[in-house]
Amino acid sequence: MSELDIDAVLDRVRFDAAGLLPAVIQQHDTREVLMVGWMDAEALRRTLTEGRVTFWSRSRQEYWRKGDTSGHAQHVRGAALDCDGDTLLVQIDQVGVACHTGARSCFDVDPLEPVVGARS
Amino acid sequence: MSELDIDAVLDRVRFDAAGLLPAVIQQHDTREVLMVGWMDAEALRRTLTEGRVTFWSRSRQEYWRKGDTSGHAQHVRGAALDCDGDTLLVQIDQVGVACHTGARSCFDVDPLEPVVGARS
After folding, report:
1. For Zn(2+), which residues are the binding ones (chains A, B) (predicted)?
2. B24 touches chain A (CB under 8 A)
3. Residue A39 structural domain
4. How far A23 CA lies from chain B's nearest CA (Å)?
5. Could you identify which of A86, B72, B80, B106 might form a hypothetical disulfide with A107, taking C-beta atoms 3.0 to 4.6 angstroms apart as the criterion?
C-alpha cells in the first residue's frame, strides 16, 4: 500500500483470545532481535502512527511507550505482519539498551547451549 | 552453563496459560527474522536436544518438526531465553524457505508502511 491505512491493517490482524499480538522488536541495521512485547489494537495503532513503539504491559495492564521512563526509546523504521497476521515484526532504532536488566537485548541474558544441527 | 541441562532450562521457562512459549526463528548468519512459532515443553526439549526445530501446531494440535513434510528444515545453531523466560530466540540455518507461501520469511508477505520516527 502506498500509505498506511490503519483500519485495513487492523482488519488483517488476528489478535489472540486476550486481544493481543506478539511484536518482535529488531534493531533495523544490525538486525539484532532485542525483545518481544505485546500489543493490543490501540498499542499497534500508536506504534504504526507515532514513530515510537508502544506496548500493552500484560503485568501492569497499561500502555507502555518504550523509553518514556527509561529514556530507552524505540524509533520505528519499518514493520510487517506475518503471513497469517498473528505476529508483528518492528524494525526500530534503539536508544541505549532494550532490556530492563541493562543488557542490550533481552536475549543476551540467558543464552542456552542447544545441540547444534547441520545439513546432511 | 557448560552443557545443556534441559530440566534446568524447563524450570526457568514461563509458559503461558496454554502451556506454550513463542519462539522467534532467526537465520543465524543474515539475522533475518524468518517466523514465529510456538513450543510446549516437549517441543522445546526436542528443539534443544535434536538439532532441528520442532513446534507445537496450535491449529493442528500436534508436533510439527519443521521440514519433515516440506523439506524446509531448520537446523539449530543457537538459542536463548529472554530476561523473564517467556520468549525463546532460536538461531537456525534455514533450508529453502521458511514460509508456507514460498516466501523466504513469513514477514516478507505483508510489509506495512508505518510512520517513521527519529532521534530528536
Report:
1. 83, 99, 106
2. yes
3. 6-96
4. 10
5. B80
